[in-house]
Write a structure and sequence with these properties.
The chain has 10 helices and 13 strands. By secondary structure, it is α/β, with parallel strands linked by helices. It has 2 domains: about 200 residues, Rossmann fold, CATH 3.40.50; about 80 residues, UDP-galactose 4-epimerase, domain 1, CATH 3.90.25. The strands form 4 sheets. Strands 3-2-1-4-5-6-11 form a 7-stranded parallel beta sheet, sandwiched between helices. It has a two-stranded parallel ribbon with strand order 7-10. Strand 1, helix 1 and strand 2 form a beta-alpha-beta unit. The longest helix has 20 residues. The termini are far apart. Bound molecules: ligand A2R and guanosine-5'-diphosphate-alpha-D-mannose. The site of guanosine-5'-diphosphate-alpha-D-mannose has 24 residues, from helix 3 and helix 6.
Length: about 325
């Protein structure tokens, strides 16, 4: 029998990629979006849902009765979390608890994937990279703290109520369609704007010394589909590439794809009050369980993201 999967928060970056992967793996797909969002051209039944409305989450779960739930809905920007801490806490903690409570009330036990972040590890001591799931969490920003909290509550619910909750710590994921508030999409958009004569040949950047672990979103959603079926209840799995890259090297790679003469300037607005120096995943745990490892090279993702911005900007 076909498994039924429900993606909560599907109108963001990851959602439509995940729906495609679910369909390819033979799942029936349901997806939610906020009422003001649009989610078109996806092969899924689409429902409106605000996870802050606890009763609405319960009603939808009773209506859809999914075998698998992918909980993506979040305030997902580290940068925005500094400016909107209350909103970030509400959506990422209270909203997630609403989802867990609604699942708990069901008359059966769906398997649920809670998407957290590599940012949960925060400050990493020398010798702790690549970082394992068992490492101490020292979140260094508000977004990271909310995701660490979701992870801890997920762990508690899973054991206390014998629920099938599986936690993910996703490291930076990138690809065509990502909002330009995230670094790779931001840099690619700026280069495309320069090439199309829409801005001066000057790129505005933030902290180039940070090192982050980047994975193509299409690889990330493959990991999610494997983990929702195979992940052990109450366990946490890193999803990343296993290799950190300096943001400066990413910038150089993106600029090297352009013929334009580009100058780079630091924009103080893009610097964060605190920016963890390095985040790099150890992906042994997920690899041992599922055989997953990422396949798409960074160079390909960067090129496709540049092409994406050219297309979007030309379409106006
Ligand atoms: O904030 P918006 O308007 O972009 O909507 C986001 C949505 N969302 C909500 N959905 C239901 N009820 C809410 N109260 C609520 N607040 C926000 O969740 C957006 O459409 C979606 C999350 O998508 P993105 O922000 O594009 O995140 P992405 O990159 O798809 O990442 C998926 C997950 C998130 O949990 C991240 O924190 C994690 O992976 O890295
Ligand atoms: N956005 C942005 N813009 N970041 C910049 C820039 C810039 O111009 N210049 C340097 N950076 C640095 C940031 O300071 C940070 O160290 C790094 O690039 C990555 O920033 P983002 O792409 O904004 O992502 P993030 O790491 O803060 O968060 C993303 O990854 C997390 C997983 O590690 C998001 O997708 C989160 O939702 C996700 O959990």
């Amino acid at each position: 029998m076909k498994k039924k999967g429900l993606v909560i928060g599907a109108a963001g970056f990851v959602g439509s990629y995940l729906i495609r992967e679910m369909r390819e793996s033979g799942m029936e797909a349901h997806a939610t979006k906020l009422p003001h969002e649009s989610l078109e051209n996806v092969d899924a039944a689409v429902h409106d849902l605000d996870i802050m409305d606890r009763d609405a989450v319960t009603a939808l779960l009773f209506e859809v009765r999914p075998d698998y739930v992918f909980h993506l809905a979040a305030q997902s920007s580290v940068g925005l979390a500094w400016k909107r801490p209350g909103l970030t806490v509400d959506v990422n903690i209270k909203g997630s608890v609403n989802v867990m409570d609604a699942v708990r009330e069901l008359f059966y036990k769906p398997r649920v994937l809670l998407i957290g972040s590599g940012e949960e590890y925060g400050h990493i001591e020398p010798g702790e990279t690549p970082i394992k799931e068992t490492n101490l969490l020292r979140p260094g920003n508000i977004y990271a703290a909310t995701k660490a909290c979701q992870n801890m509550i997920g762990n508690i619910y899973s054991r206390a109520y014998d629920m099938e909750l599986v936690m993910v710590r996703a490291f930076n994921h990138i690809g065509p369609g990502q909002a330009s508030m995230f670094v790779v999409s931001d840099f690619c958009r700026q280069v495309a704007e320069i090439e199309l004569g829409m801005r001066e040949p000057v790129m505005k950047v933030g902290n180039l010394a940070a090192e982050r672990d980047f994975t193509d979103v299409r690889d990330v959603v493959k990991a999610y589909v494997k983990l929702v079926a195979l992940g052990e209840a109450g366990e946490t799995y890193n999803v990343g590439s296993g290799r950190a890259r300096a943001i400066r090297d990413i910038l150089d790679l993106i600029i090297s794809r352009s013929h334009a003469q580009i100058r780079v300037e630091t924009d103080p607005n893009k610097l964060r009050p605190v920016d963890v120096p390095i985040i790099e995943a150890d992906i042994t745990k997920i690899n041992r369980l599922t055989g997953w490892r990422p396949e798409i090279p960074l160079e390909q993702t960067v090129q496709e993201t540049l092409d994406y911005w050219h297309r979007i900007l030309l379409e106006g």
